[in-house]
Design brief:
The chain has a domain at 84-218. Helices cover 10% and strands 26% of the residues. The chain has 2 helices and 9 strands, in the order H-H-E-E-E-E-E-E-E-E-E. The chain has helices spanning 49-66, 77-80, and strands spanning 84-85, 93-100, 107-110, 116-129, 132-141, 149-154, 168-173, 179-183, 217-218. The longest helix is centred in the N-terminal third of the chain and has 18 residues, at 49-66.
Length: 220
């Protein structure tokens, strides 16, 4: 999905829209793929989950610190880096079933700069977190005909205290089975958290979880 400031280019939805083209996206952490920056994990794929995730977080810090396309202004990098995270907890990685939406029209999702992003509901992810049944709507951009990536913006009871007030994001690669792994350890702040010139979608009311999700990225 995409990442833009003024609508130029086509990258990941969740990060924000840049004022100029050429921004490299921090693409799905689970695949360790950085646009324009090589990401080589320092631990093998068979290493423990916590070690692999810690390595990916270090790679993201390095990209934000030194990458030409870092979203963090150079005079703010000591303020934000290294990024803050909750402790890695595997019980925040849960299976989910996607119930597809039925031919819903596009909707407008408000953004951090007052603009509105045209989105479509891809379906509802149903899962259980700490024994509590929950659901989140997955979205795609209205113009996305490939429908290969799902954008899951969400809020929770940590917003405004431990995390960015408007909420955080997850990205999922579409599966043919409708079965997904929702890993809140991969929840991340949009680029507008670091830089207000970015245009980032706000999680809709239907994705405001009435529980605290102490996993993934947090304020320092």
């Amino acid at each position: 999905m995409t990442d833009r400031r003024s609508g130029q280019g086509s990258r990941r939805v969740g990060l924000g829209r840049p004022a100029a083209p050429g921004l490299a996206s921090w693409v799905l952490l689970t695949t360790c793929t950085l646009a324009a920056v090589g990401c080589q994990p320092s631990v093998p794929p068979e290493a423990p989950y916590a070690d692999r995730l810690a390595s990916l977080r270090q790679a993201k810090d390095e990209f934000f610190r030194t990458g030409a396309d870092s979203p963090i202004p150079s005079d703010k990098r000591t303020e934000f880096l290294p990024l803050g995270y909750f402790a890695i907890e595997e019980h925040y990685k849960v299976p989910a079933q996607l119930t597809p939406s039925e031919r819903e029209p596009s909707m407008e999702m408000p953004t951090s700069t007052g603009q509105r992003r045209q989105m479509r509901r891809a379906g509802t992810l149903k899962f259980s977190l700490k024994g509590q049944p929950l659901a989140l709507t997955a979205f795609v951009e209205a113009s996305d005909t490939a429908f290969t990536r799902l954008f899951v913006p969400f809020g929770d009871l940590t917003n405004g205290t431990e995390t960015y007030p408007p909420g955080r994001y997850l990205d999922l690669t579409r599966t043919p089975t409708g079965i997904y792994e929702v890993d809140f350890n991969l929840a991340y702040h949009p680029y507008c958290y670091y830089n207000p010139t970015y245009d980032c979608p706000y999680p809709p009311a239907e994705n405001r979880l009435q529980v605290p999700v102490r996993a993934g990225e947090k304020r320092k």
